[in-house]
Amino acid sequence: MCPEIARPDFSTQLNSHQGRTFENVLEPTSGKFSTHSDVWAFGVTLWEIFTCCRERPFSSLTDDQVLENIQQMGSQSALKHQLERPSLCPASLFSNAVVPCWQYEPQDRPSFEALHLQLQVLIHTKMP
């Protein structure tokens, strides 16, 4: 059994905050909470940590533009507007642990076990 970071029973309470919805952390293919959406959200959380929470994900986009961005990802296999690597985040960590969390197809995202192993490797490797 794998614990989920985001619980479905909280989804109605967590759907919006101060008038802004959380589409940027939901499962892009189904809009539902799952272990795969938890991995997506974990990637966003890592990004937020490395920005010291000074930026909001996709803050330059409206909620509708965030949804459009994610829908476009399904047809073009890439986000039109991507979250850039924060200056405090080592490039190897961003490319090997953060970006893989944002694969469009849920089965293409790493498991938390794989992320844990990848983070251990990166921690024990001298990062630039």
UniProtKB/TrEMBL annotation:
<dbReference type="Pfam" id="PF07714">
    <property type="entry name" value="PK_Tyr_Ser-Thr"/>
</dbReference>
<protein>
    <recommendedName>
        <fullName>Protein kinase domain-containing protein</fullName>
    </recommendedName>
</protein>
<dbReference type="GO" id="GO:0005524">
    <property type="term" value="F:ATP binding"/>
</dbReference>
<dbReference type="InterPro" id="IPR000719">
    <property type="entry name" value="Prot_kinase_dom"/>
</dbReference>
<dbReference type="GO" id="GO:0010976">
    <property type="term" value="P:positive regulation of neuron projection development"/>
</dbReference>
<dbReference type="InterPro" id="IPR020635">
    <property type="entry name" value="Tyr_kinase_cat_dom"/>
</dbReference>
<dbReference type="GO" id="GO:0005518">
    <property type="term" value="F:collagen binding"/>
</dbReference>
<dbReference type="GO" id="GO:0038062">
    <property type="term" value="F:protein tyrosine kinase collagen receptor activity"/>
</dbReference>
<dbReference type="GO" id="GO:0051897">
    <property type="term" value="P:positive regulation of phosphatidylinositol 3-kinase/protein kinase B signal transduction"/>
</dbReference>
<dbReference type="InterPro" id="IPR011009">
    <property type="entry name" value="Kinase-like_dom_sf"/>
</dbReference>
<feature type="domain" description="Protein kinase">
    <location>
        <begin position="1"/>
        <end position="127"/>
    </location>
</feature>
<dbReference type="GO" id="GO:0043235">
    <property type="term" value="C:receptor complex"/>
</dbReference>
<dbReference type="GO" id="GO:0005886">
    <property type="term" value="C:plasma membrane"/>
</dbReference>
<dbReference type="InterPro" id="IPR001245">
    <property type="entry name" value="Ser-Thr/Tyr_kinase_cat_dom"/>
</dbReference>
<dbReference type="InterPro" id="IPR050122">
    <property type="entry name" value="RTK"/>
</dbReference>
